[in-house]
Design a protein that fits this description.
It is built from 22 helices and 20 strands. It is of the alpha/beta class and about 750 residues long. The protein has 2 domains: about 300 residues, no CATH class; about 325 residues, 3-Layer(aba) Sandwich (Rossmann fold), CATH 3.40.50. Helix 2 packs across helix 3, helix 2 packs across helix 4 and helix 14 crosses helix 16. The longest helix is centred in the middle third of the chain and has 43 residues.
Amino acid sequence: MDTNTLNIDTKSQLAKLLATENITVQQNNVKTASFDVVNRVLTLPIFKTNSKDVTDMLVAHECAHALFTPTNGWKKIADDDELRAYVNVLEDCRIDAKIQKKYPGVVENYLNGFQILNRRNFFGLKDKDYDTDLMLIDKINVFYKSSKKLLFNFSNADKLWLKKVDELKTFNDVIKLAKQLLDWQKKEVKKLKKLPDFDNHILVENYNLKNKENDSKDSKDIEGDGNKDDNSDSESKDKQDGEEGKTESESKQDKPAVGDKTAKDENSSGGGAVGAGGDMPLGSITNNWFEGHKEKLLDNNTSYYYRSIPETKLDKVIHSNADFLKDMKQSFINDKDTARLWYPYLKKEYKKFINDSKKTIMYLVKEFEMKKAATAYKRSTQDKTGVIDPLKLHSYKFNEDIFKRLTILPDAKNHGMVMLLDWSGSMSDCIYKTVQQTIQLVYFCSKVNIPFELYFFSSELGKDDNYPKLNKGFKYKHGDMPIDPCKLVNVASHKLTKSKLEESLMYLYHLAMYYEHNYNWRHTWDGSDRPDSVRIPSEYYLGSTPLNEALIMMLKLVPLFKNKYKIEKMNLITLTDGGGNYGNSDTMCYDDKSKQIIPSHVENAGNTDVLIYKKKYHSLKENDHWGYRSTAMTGTILNLLQKYHNVTTIGFYLIKRIRRWETDMYFRPRNPKLTWDQKDKLYLQNRTKFNKEKCVSVPQLGYNDYYIVNAKDMKVENTDLEGINDTMKTGKIKQLFSKSMKGRITSRVLLNKFIEKVA
């Protein structure tokens, strides 16, 4: 998980704590926080400050707005810029006090956070005299933001206003007090204008106060001087906290130059327009300054596209083994033409394959048991029993160790396996060989008593004519990702009786042979072994590659499997000839008209996908996954299986045409720390091993082990020693026997790699 994802998750948990309910909390490329009342989604800006206190203070403040500021409260004063400025400051005082009282733990964050920001001049207080250079609204602003630690010489009249601020209870109270304070401040400004040195008064400079007769002239001067210094640190945005509805262009036009002596921007006082009577609108220069410099705290280059994983309804997405057998019997037995012409040949071929494989499988079973025993003995320990060994008793005078010892073997792990087989159209020319390999693995697990389930994932079984793009095997809520049509077909299981297992594997073999004969252009046959027509159910046609959909189902299925059979070492194997389907940009959203959760296309989705699982955030970065969004999704889901369910993930990728771009993609590492010569060396090593062993292991995100397999040479060998005769020398016989056994064993790629993992 990358740093951004960790930050998202951490701050979201803080926000949820502050909000006191299980709301959905998201960070995104926004200026201010917003809260979706209907769907209970709190959206926060992405803060990039390195200070934990600053970040926590900002998050707490935004959550306080979500908790205590009414959603439609600002509409009451939408057209009054002056009043909005005062309301904004006072509302911040009110909500910050409430959040600190409700959660005392954030008090320290506010104290430290303000000090850090103030040292970096985020409030424009540098070189200012707190008592003489600020109006009361700004004194109130920084006084309360500093948790009343910033020192001011408040007059008795000022203290009366502070008391009123402390007594604020509701947003309506804030509006009422803001009107009173604004009216009072306007009267104080009128008094200033009567002073002889008014034009040279510091408040005139800080707040851009003007006499009526000079308004027109000043406005022209502003137009000519506004762009004199684009890089001035004094530049800031007139964006009030909680203000909504401004466009990006409007925000750019509202940049004030508070404190800039060369550019008297009318926006510096919080309004941006001439007020009633020709006076400039009054505002808070400290708040304007903070809003203008707030950009430095925001990450404007990152945006997130959030989607959560919906709840899987296993009874709806799994096609049971009983249903599979029923469908196959209907196709291969109940259909008279198929039963008469095709089925006998299929049955004979399968029986021959199994009989030829049994010897090799049993040999590998014995080898596996020996390896397991040797490994266990290597890790064994010895301990004293406390019982005297009579054979050592004679040495008691010079040897203290005369006790019997007990050899302790470590407990073996209870293994389990779930296998996912790709049932897509591109598998047609290698499905036969793949199924052969798969059956070998199933037989092995059955012989060594490893609990297992074998599924193939199919897009055809999951189709829905009413809504073909939505899998109804999931329970959706607002913010979930829609799942494409997909079902898992349970074709083998350790739970089945021996006869049912044999029957299931035979039908799987039949299906594979059907596609081998009908869709593999490399297959040669004389015509006598194939009927004119064979009918299989359309639901079992090869379709697309819903790998990611199948893996999402594993998030629900695998934990149940582990718990039920007390699995200590869980293995998930995927076997595909390509990546999963391309992920769409839809999100399940609540529709006001239909009052239902329906898929909705998201325009301009964020540059980083974020997957929500178990209330945690996990980002998908395409650059880390060869630029493919679907592959990024695959890696992320597999990581979730590893992290939350302790699953060992093993992948087999079938290459059928050994294309240079494909081998270059997988054989040449993308590690930026390696030089080109180092990458080229590793490429040649991988290529050599691949050519020699038909299989090579390469790194792939989400997989503990990922194997590139030569699908052209995947056919299981069961070579008989037919060439041996009486005249043959012993050495030659030995050579033929060794070659035969080597071919038998190495051809079982899946089984060999699995044994390596579990032994």
